[in-house]
Amino acid sequence: MGGFKFLEHMSDAYIMAWGKTLEEAFEYAALGMFETMTDTSKVKHKVVREIEVDGIDLFSLLYNWLEELLYYFDAEALLFSKFKVHEIGKKNGKYYLRGIVLGEPFDESRHISKNAVKAVTYSLMEINRKNGEWILKFVLDL
After folding, report:
1. What local confidence, expressed as pLDDT, does residue 6 receive?
2. For residue 29, what pLDDT is reported?
3. Cβ count near 120 (within 10 Å)
4. pLDDT of 118-138, one tens digit each?
5. What is the pLDDT of residue 36?
6. How would you class 71 by CB atoms within 10 Å of its CB: exposed for 0-12, middle for 13-18, buried for 19 or more?
7. So where are the chain's domains?
8. Burial grade of 29 (CB within 10 A; 0-12, 13-18, 19 or more)
9. What is this structure's pTM?
10. Quick one: fold of 3-141?
11. What share of the chain in percent tops pLDDT 90?
12. b/e string for 121-136 if b means 16 or more Cβ within 10 A?
């Protein structure tokens, strides 16, 4: 079973996410990002967004996935708490991801505001497969 945890970092959010599949690890990476921002257990599944991103490698795919989700928060004040990555693959030399995310607009009466995520970064980013699990590490600029 996958999951995520926060790692030590001086000023930003350093997250490790893992899963039996790359798709599951990406799902938990997204959950970790939104848990940095709010208590995701309070975010209802009222809004669905289909997500399609690509990247030249797995690092840029992870970056683009998280940035796309952060864009929805910045542009539409949407918080997400459920992530389903249907497919990660490679076509024509590029990696792609297809999935859906579920959440709702930020409501200050119900959602606590923990940290403001300014940006996803490539700092300390790692993507490894070890002992049958995918392990992702990345830093969010707060």
Report:
1. 98
2. 99
3. 22
4. 999 999 999 999 999 999 999
5. 98
6. exposed
7. 3-141
8. buried
9. 0.97
10. Archease, Possible Chaperone; Chain: A; domain 1 (3.55.10)
11. 98
12. eeeebebeeeeeebeb
pLDDT of residue 100: 99
Question: Tell me, what amino acid is at 33?
Answer: M
Three-state DSSP string of the chain: CCEEEEECCCCCEEEEEEECCHHHHHHHHHHHHHHHHCCHHHCCCCEEEEEEEEECCHHHHHHHHHHHHHHHHHHHCEEEEEEEEEEEEEECCEEEEEEEEEEEECCCCCCCCCCCCCEECCCCCEEEEECCEEEEEEEEEC
In the block, which residue shows the tokens 């999935």? 99
Q: Which residue is associated with the tokens 């009222």?
A: 46
